Amino acid sequence: MSSREPSSPKFRLRLLPVLIAAVVTSQAQAADLWTITQDALQDNATLDASRSTFQSVEAGRDVARGSLLPQIDATAQVAHNNTLESQEGSGIQGGGAQSGVGSSADNYNATSASLELTQALYDATSWASLQIAKREIDQQALLLQADRQQLLYDVASAYFEILRAYEVLQARIAQEKAIKRQLDQAQEQFDVGLVAITDVNEARASYDLARAQRISAENDLQVSFEALQRLTGKRYDSIEMLSEDIPIEAPEPAKRDRWVRLAVANNPSVQAAQAAVNVAQAEVDQAQAGHLPTLSAFANYDYSDSDQDYLSGHNEGTTVGLQATLPIYSGGTTSAQVRQQTYSLEATQYDFEAQRRDTTQQVRSLFTQVMNDVESVEAQRQAIVSNRSALEATRSGYQVGTRNIVDVLEAEQSLYQAIADYADARYTYVTDMVALRQQAGVLDQGVIRELNEWLKDTQTVKLRLPEDGGMSQVEDIGKRPTMGPSATP
């Protein structure tokens, strides 16, 4: 993969330097966000199921249309007949008594065939069924679009969750090493009688906590890699890191109400809820059509033949005509169906309003969250600077005897917690921006490509499972980066 320079995307983000620790060299090609997104679009079980559902609903249109097109039926029959007559009679004929028995048998073959053509001229019920099928296609297309946008968000979220987990892990590793040095120093001072055993115990307790936090962070990173495999069906051993100079800015447009209007007009879930109302209205029309007459044209052709002894030749005939049917009374079924579908229509209208309100609330909340994320990232960056200064002052105080080891350990933990919080704040901003675009209905592959431009192929996060004999780490093909906003403490 060639080196890329960030363009000027609409989806602008700004992130400060990333936290990177262990550095190794590798020739393996890492996956980027764009590649993983394409893998997901091609082989995601949920999206594939949604596509198949759409195709099934689309085929329903042809099913409904079929009842409005000509219907042709042909029947044919070949039969062998065996008849036996046996009669016995008695009576008086010509002045004398007579009696007798008679019987006859006949075996013959008979054939018959018929051809019938019917064409609906007016059938409001079938026409309404076709309208329902068409509106269901529109609805399912919007649901498919919603599933597609959800997948784009899930992939981006899972990708940046790995980077978040990695940077938190690096903070925990650095914390563990720093506190281990403090423990070793306390042990050496205790061995020569400069400090009490309580300093050693305090340092060991902090070291055990830091070690536990590092182990938990390692687990989080391994689990986050599994999320990508679930989305795409592929395993990724390494992914590219995010550039240090990605911008963190307020969303554009900068007005919350404009995002709300954008969501109401473009959010596929809102549009699908509106489409469901249209489907329900068509179902009401179909139920009401049960009161209307139907008119159809028909044509029949019949042919029959047999080889009975006393018959010869064949019979055939044609019939052409119109047939009208007017429903008079069906036990109240039609009226009940109209009421049933009317209530269903009301329910879908309420569902649409609930979906619109929910989307509006989500967009407002995400917009506010993104605005807060911008300030939070800057605050967390400053917190690192402040905690580093506090740690240096505490160490100096410990050396001259004005501060104790507990103060130093707490300052160490505060610094590395601030580093972890800083990484968390940056990736929270990125994922919240993606979520805001999803709720607004404008999350597409263009957004993913723009985000991908801020990745760099010179630094990658590599997953090393426990059975591989190592932890996840950064592969740095370029220069070694610094850790945090300033030099590593």
TrEMBL record:
Keywords: Cell outer membrane, Membrane, Signal, Transmembrane, Transmembrane beta strand, Transport. Residues 468-489 are annotated as: Disordered. Residues 1-30 form the signal peptide. InterPro entries: OMP_efflux, T1SS_OMP_TolC, TolC-like. One of its GO terms (molecular function) is efflux transmembrane transporter activity. It is found in: Cell outer membrane. SUPFAM superfamilies: Outer membrane efflux proteins (OEP). Pfam families: OEP. GO terms for cellular component: cell outer membrane; efflux pump complex. Belongs to the outer membrane factor (OMF) (TC 1.B.17) family. NCBIfam families: type_I_sec_TolC (TIGR01844). This is Outer membrane protein. It comes from Chromohalobacter marismortui.
